[in-house]
Model the fold of this input.
Amino acid sequence: MLKKVRIDKWLWSVRIFKSRSMATDACKSGKIKVGENNIKPSYLLQRGETISVKKNGFDLSFKVIDLLDKRVSAILAQPCYEDLTPPEELNKYKDWFVGKGRPEMREKGTGRPTKRDRRDIDKFKDYE
Done:
């Protein structure tokens, strides 16, 4: 049984991030906190700690119940953490979007966005 595991590895293994490199980048950019402290990807996580994650404009909170070092299915990952995120934070997008204007459109004939355009759009919308 594991006593400690790297936080970037745990965030990836319980499917909070799609890849370990995304979890590592989030730690490096200060989007992951344990308590009130920004942490490095090499931080050794223990059971019972509370993690704050800023992802896609949402402020998520999780309590570590069990440690994993390998990626598992979503069903097996669910009992390894407790979601402490308040419901109003989860409904923030839904509340913001209701009654808003039409969806985003590109001018006709410009084609699909390039990879560079996509990165610029994501950076503008703060989806990192």
Remarks:
- The mean pLDDT is 88.
- The two ends are 33 Å apart (CA to CA).
- The chain has one domain: 5-88+112-125.
- Residues 115-125 form the longest helix (11 residues).
